[in-house]
Amino acid sequence: MTQTFTSPIPVLPQPEDGRRVLLKLSGEAFGGGAVGVDPDVVSRIAGEIAEGVAQGVECAIVVGGGNFFRGAELSQRGMDRRRADYMGMLGTVMNCLALQDFLEQRGISTRVQTAIEMGQVAEPYIPLRAVRHLEKGRVVIFGAGAGMPYFSTDTVAVQRALEIGCEEVLMAKNGVDGVYDSDPRTNPDATKLDHVTYEDALVRGLKVVDSTAFSLCMDNAQQMMVFGLDAPGNITRAMRGDRIGTVVTK
């Protein structure tokens, strides 16, 4: 008689008391509107994250790299898309290291994990290790995107949030404070939405967040909040659960 053994699917531990969030930060914000890293901006962001952590929030972070390279834009100028995307991934790692430094200056123990191995500056991305860091009160910053071309950091943020069991994805946007019914930069009569469903956002083509990220959230019932990064204190407020932007749900 043949016996069949089925391996149990590992269940990631969930936070017992506190709130666990995935904060997605715009790379453009790190540059303060220019190429490179603006220390004053990153210092402010780090201070707000540190305040949220001090209030008991477990925080993982994905940082974009738009202040250095944007793969899609480079490919439009004739560069191979795959190579351009890898350049963008390296840009995100530089932002991760800058944020780590400013967080640790505030006494917040921080780990950087990257999807592309670079052992001298970061750990490899290992979900269970990331969860363990969070349980110990450390901030974990995920760099190098998905480690593959054609994936936006918005999509990576959702994937990481799902894999490490985050309650909510916090999309901090530069220059916009939520989801609008049309583009507020071209339509002065655009209306901000306090709540929208993923299906409605996709049908209406609301592009404040990458459509693949929206679809991934919708398929897995992952809650998201889109809010503005510009107003001081917004990151801390979003981390502790204040409704300051647009809540997006299934």
Written overview of the protein:
The protein is of the alpha/beta class. 38% of the residues lie in helices and 18% in strands. It has helices spanning 27-30, 39-54, 71-76, 81-105, 127-135, 153-164, 198-204, 211-220, 234-240, and strands at 20-25, 58-63, 110-114, 123-124, 139-143, 168-173, 179-180, 192-193, 195-197, 224-228, 246-249. The strands form two sheets. A nine-stranded mixed sheet has the order 4-3-5-2-1-6-10-11-9, sandwiched between helices. Strands 7-8 form a two-stranded antiparallel sheet. The longest helix has 25 residues, at 81-105. The protein is globular and about 50 Å long.
How would you summarize what this structure contains?
The protein has helices at residues 27-30, 39-54, 71-76, 81-105, 127-135, 153-164, 198-204, 211-220, 234-240; strands spanning 20-25, 58-63, 110-114, 123-124, 139-143, 168-173, 179-180, 192-193, 195-197, 224-228, 246-249.
